[in-house]
């Protein structure tokens, strides 16, 4: 049996149909690298998509601004409206207090997903978006079931918002995510986003004889962009 080519070169997108025939949706995005292929898929399906960027977990502020600006850059290229939500990082630290040493995919991640998806669902409710989806589950480092459970709780507050739990990893989605990131020369972050994930990743690097993460300098195709060029 021949292997299906899911690369950008050989891939032909199948028809993507949103639940209940909806055409308008809100996409919660965590970063351009995770969102790139999803954004292209939604545009190709002629869906009326808006990006909602709410990620108060990302640390420090210059890292947050860099990831946000990369996402804005690609949204402009595709003609997708972009909503820049609050960076209420103090609220995030307050909610995750006592969970500083939880492992990846642990209770701190649940708290983090709950916070971000609850805010996304509220925005969808207040602004007439009947459908919400997210990039949070596309990374292989995340537990998609964990993300979907948090999202389900978030939208259950409202009668007029549903969550689209589409598996964006399937049919080569993870491979295309990387190919789009390389093609667009996105910023290649080396950790999930929060200060605790940065700590734990660097600890693992140190134990395994690897260099610690240097933020803001690693781009696909070796493109360079200094943090001081990112608007504060």
Please explain how this structure is put together:
Helix 1 runs parallel beside helix 2 (61-78), helix 1 crosses helix 6 and helix 4 (107-126) packs across helix 5. The chain has 7 helices and 5 strands. The chain is 41% helix and 9% strand. The chain starts with 23 loop residues before the first strand and ends in a 25-residue tail after the last helix. It has a 5-stranded parallel β-sheet with strand order 3-2-1-4-5, sandwiched between helices. It has one domain (22-229): HUPs (Rossmann fold), CATH 3.40.50.620. The model is unreliable at 223-232 (pLDDT under 50). It is globular. By secondary structure, the protein is of the alpha/beta class.
Short description:
The protein is an alpha/beta fold and 232 residues long. 41% of the residues lie in helices and 9% in strands. It has a five-stranded parallel sheet, sandwiched between helices.
Structure keywords:
Rossmann fold; 232 residues; 9% strand; alpha/beta; globular; five-stranded parallel sheet; 7 helices
CATH topology: Rossmann fold
What is the 3D form? globular
Could you tell me the mean pLDDT?
Answer: 91
Number of helices: 7
**Proportion in helices:** 40-55%
Coarse structural class: alpha/beta
Query: Main beta sheet, described?
Result: 5 strands, parallel
Output the CATH homologous superfamily: HUPs
Number of domains: 1
- From the N-terminal CA to the C-terminal CA, the straight-line distance is 52 Å
* Low-pLDDT windows of residues: 223-232
Do you know the CATH architecture?
Answer: 3-Layer(aba) Sandwich
CATH class: Alpha Beta
Number of strands: 5
Order of strands in the sheet with the most strands?
Answer: 3-2-1-4-5
Residue share in β-strands? 5-15%
Listing every helix as H and every strand as E from the N terminus to the C terminus, the arrangement reads EHEHEHHEHEHH
Rg, Å, rounded: 17 Å
């Amino acid at each position: 049996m021949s292997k299906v080519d899911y690369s950008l070169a050989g891939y032909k997108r199948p028809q993507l149909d949103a639940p209940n025939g909806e055409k308008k949706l809100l996409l919660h995005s965590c970063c351009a690298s995770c969102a790139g292929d999803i954004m292209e898929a939604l545009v190709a399906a002629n869906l009326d998509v808006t990006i909602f960027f709410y990620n108060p977990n990302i640390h420090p502020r210059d890292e947050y601004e860099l990831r946000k600006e990369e996402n804005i850059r690609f949204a402009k290229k595709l003609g997708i409206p972009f909503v820049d939500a609050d960076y209420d990082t103090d609220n995030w630290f307050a909610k995750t207090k006592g969970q500083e040493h939880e492992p990846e995919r642990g209770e701190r991640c649940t708290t983090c997903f709950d916070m971000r998806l609850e805010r996304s669902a509220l925005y969808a409710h207040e602004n007439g978006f009947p459908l919400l989806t997210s990039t949070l589950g596309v990374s292989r480092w995340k537990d998609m079931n964990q993300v979907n459970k948090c999202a389900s709780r978030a939208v259950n507050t409202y009668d007029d918002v549903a969550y689209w739990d589409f598996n964006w990893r399937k049919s080569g989605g993870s491979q295309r995510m990387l190919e789009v990131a390389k093609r667009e020369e996105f910023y290649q972050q080396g950790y999930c986003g929060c200060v605790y994930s940065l700590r734990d990743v660097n600890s693992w690097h140190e134990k395994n004889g690897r260099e610690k993460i240097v933020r803001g300098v690693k781009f696909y195709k070796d493109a360079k962009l200094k943090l001081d060029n990112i608007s504060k």
